[in-house]
DNA sequence: CTGAAAGCGCTAACAA
DNA sequence: TTGTTAGCGCTTTCAG
């Protein structure tokens, strides 16, 4: 079985030297049009494809970016990854994907695996902003980093794409208060990451501003390991003074709320108002359709790729933080608080 | 900025030759325990990570597998990709991800991009089994291929993971017929791929066997470009003799059916019975919960990775085709056909 | 505009 | 058990 043709084979076929083929392959340097044509012809007829591993040895550039994500089956992550991949591919870059299953140890390991493969940079979601091992690994990291929606205590500033979670959260709390709700709960995953922290803080602040007692604006942290997402929602709804509105962060928790309210026979929105965060993909198939806080995942992924490409091409450039908005999409899952609750 | 330490640096630090370090790094060859310890110590203190690009030049092995997928935002694809990535990572392999947006031209290009990066093999879903360019690219491909759920006319047999779509489809048609349905529609994406073909065929056959006239067992192919998935469902339901049961292949089309039936005021399952295929992720949040044909995506991804790893380690091995089952999960979205339809 | 020589980091083959 | 030599495919430098 013959091996793939190399640059040398092309050179021989075209009757030129290796370096000339290299110049044609890279579009670099000046090559006589006739020569170029001859070389290109040889490349085509041999089916030549450059060997990036070999090129990487000289240039230290693999044309490959690492993408580290906690969980690909989570729609937002997948959408961001796909958008980034697309942008990178358009620019001639490949994407090495690593999924960490929300495990910081795995994240540190994946980082090493990516470095070993000589990625030119890494775009990443981390699943714990305060994990010391992970932070050490990150600080040791030599190639450019684009951090997605996290606040990381790194020495050097890095490029990052972050989202404004507070504005939409405040808006949504005010909306619920206007509808008469006085007992509201926020369900979030138990993760030390920016979106959860910012949402929780904004939730509490907005509730306080609206004159809701601290004990009536509950933030429930749900362990990522809790298989049945409906358990915390059930606990909440079966308590002595159940919330009349629940905001659920992510598909898993929204599903939990829907299942819990269904099993308890609470009607939506008559008995319970529901709002989902980052759950737009399932909002329309629910009955009633779910009011959501949404973000443009496509934009996040593209921007992350763009930041990475910019850093790779223009070395100097000051680190950049891009802030993207969240939006509230009103649908029919919220209504006036039930009379009995007021 | 100092460069990453190389094997040579480690050798110097440990006072041994390059090759000894290499042997320690690969666990290969016999090395004296003391020497090994000294080398490992040097590696650790320097923070040495091997350069896989350099290794690849000698061995022609990058420890990286390509994964080509039409659309990552589609839950089944993401789940399979993640499962494969996990298995590969456990075995020390990286995964280069390429997404084709259902475009065969892109798929051929992505294949070249993967080859250029010297992947040791490629696991792939193609989006058109009959695209000549893609087939040519595939035939030219030198490294191992694991084909996911496609019937490809390739010269050489390749490893593949395929699913049985027919059995579950027959089961589901019989179930609907038993419930009294005599006009049934199947909504599928307009794609020349095994799952769609096998499902359509099984659907027609099962309907015929159940004594349903050909004109009453409709297969509607929906272009992947049709943004509003509800349009074909609306057309169907507003026709003169609308189906009393619809089977929808994939989230997009299931969503279309739900939106259409909602906007027409058809109750589920009283007026319309609905079954989803590969839609288990949204089945429970719907009201009523949706009866689904499901598959174990995790198993598909793991198996694909295993087949690839096996092929990489044991050269000879005859190509293997693993067939995985589909299952029907009954829920409450199907009921007796409405009286008026009989 | 084109080429010759050297070397990137690593390992296969052989030698000691 | 350890080391030496050579070279993978490519690009950088310097000469022509």
UniProtKB/TrEMBL annotation, chains A, B:
The HTH lacI-type domain, residue ranges: 5-59
Cited InterPro entries: HTH_LacI, LacI/GalR-like_sensor, Lambda_DNA-bd_dom_sf, Peripla_BP_I
Protein name: LacI family DNA-binding transcriptional regulator
Family matches, as PANTHER family: LACI-RELATED TRANSCRIPTIONAL REPRESSOR (PTHR30146), TRANSCRIPTIONAL REGULATORY PROTEIN (PTHR30146:SF138)
Keyword list, A-Z: DNA-binding, Plasmid, Transcription, Transcription regulation
Listed GO MF terms: DNA binding
Organism: Skermanella cutis
UniProt xrefs under SMART domains: HTH_LACI
Pfam families: LacI, Peripla_BP_3
Source taxon at top rank: Bacteria
Lineage of producing organism: Bacteria, Pseudomonadati, Pseudomonadota, Alphaproteobacteria, Rhodospirillales
């Amino acid at each position: 079985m013959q091996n793939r043709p190399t640059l040398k084979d092309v050179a021989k076929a075209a009757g030129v030297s290796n370096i000339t083929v290299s110049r044609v392959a890279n579009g670099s340097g000046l090559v006589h049009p006739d020569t170029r044509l001859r070389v290109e012809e040889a490349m085509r007829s041999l089916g030549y494809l450059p060997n990036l591993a070999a090129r990487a040895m000289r240039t230290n550039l693999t044309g490959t970016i690492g993408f580290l994500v906690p969980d690909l089956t989570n729609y937002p992550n997948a959408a961001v990854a796909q958008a980034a991949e697309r942008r990178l591919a358009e620019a001639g870059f490949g994407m090495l994907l690593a999924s960490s299953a929300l495990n910081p140890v795995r994240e540190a390991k994946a980082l090493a695996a990516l470095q070993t493969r000589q990625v030119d940079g890494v775009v990443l979601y981390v699943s714990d902003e305060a994990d010391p091992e992970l932070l050490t690994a990150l600080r040791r990291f030599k190639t450019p980093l684009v951090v997605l929606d996290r606040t990381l205590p790194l020495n050097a500033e890095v490029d990052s794409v972050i989202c404004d979670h507070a504005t939409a959260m405040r808006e949504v709390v005010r909306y619920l208060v206007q509808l008469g709700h006085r007992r509201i709960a926020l369900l979030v995953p138990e993760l030390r990451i920016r979106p959860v922290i910012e949402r929780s803080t904004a939730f509490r602040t907005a509730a306080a501003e609206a004159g809701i007692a601290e004990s009536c604006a509950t933030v429930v942290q749900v362990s990522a390991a809790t298989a049945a997402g409906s358990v915390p929602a059930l606990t909440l709804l079966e308590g002595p003074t159940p919330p009349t509105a629940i905001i659920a962060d992510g598909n898993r928790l929204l599903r939990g709320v829907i299942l819990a309210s269904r099993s308890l026979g609470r009607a939506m929105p008559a008995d319970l108002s529901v709002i989902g965060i980052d759950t737009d993909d399932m909002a329309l198939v629910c009955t009633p359709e779910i009011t959501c806080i949404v973000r443009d995942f496509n934009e996040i992924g593209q921007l992350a790729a763009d930041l990475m490409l910019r850093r790779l091409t223009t070395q100097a450039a000051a680190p950049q933080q891009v802030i993207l908005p969240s939006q509230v999409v009103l649908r029919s899952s919220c209504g006036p608080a039930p009379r009995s609750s007021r």
